[in-house]
Write a structure and sequence with these properties.
With about 110 residues, this protein is mostly helical. Helices cover about 65% and strands about 5% of the residues. The chain is built from four helices and two strands; from the N terminus they run ααββαα. The protein has one domain (about 5-105). The mean pLDDT is about 85. It is elongated. The chain has helices spanning about 5-15, 25-50, 65-80, 90-105; strands at about 50-55, 60. The protein starts with a helix and ends in an 8-residue tail after the last helix. It has a two-stranded antiparallel ribbon.
Length: about 110
């Protein structure tokens, strides 16, 4: 799946659920699309040059694109998990929201307060 296909799939799921992305979620989606495109480029480089390439001393080393693709896949998974596509709040997000509200309202109890 390329970046545009990802966008189309997410937008279709949102439309079906009657949801819209927040501005912050739109940024996350854009970053996920960029990560998807980067993964495709890195995978193409590995396909073209192989998983092992000659290193500086002539010995075979792991193609740097292999590790970078792995990191981009982790990033993509994290970005997609941060998108709240269900419209439901999780217990953790509710807890975080309440904690942030308390912290910012000045009602926090504890260290130095």
């Amino acid at each position: 799946m390329d970046g545009e296909q990802l966008r189309e799939q997410v937008e279709a799921e949102l439309k079906e659920a009657g949801l819209e992305l927040t501005p912050a979620e739109s940024v996350l989606l854009d970053r996920a699309i960029n990560a998807t495109e980067t993964i495709l480029l890195l995978e193409a480089a590995v396909t073209e040059h192989g998983a092992l390439v000659p290193g500086p001393k002539g010995t075979l080393v792991v193609n740097p694109a292999v590790g970078e693709a792995r990191l981009q896949k982790l990033l993509l998974a994290r970005l997609l998990s941060q998108l709240n596509l269900t419209g439901k709040s999780t217990a953790a997000s509710e807890h975080g929201r309440k904690a942030a509200n308390i912290r910012w309202s000045g009602n926090a109890v504890g260290r130095g307060r």
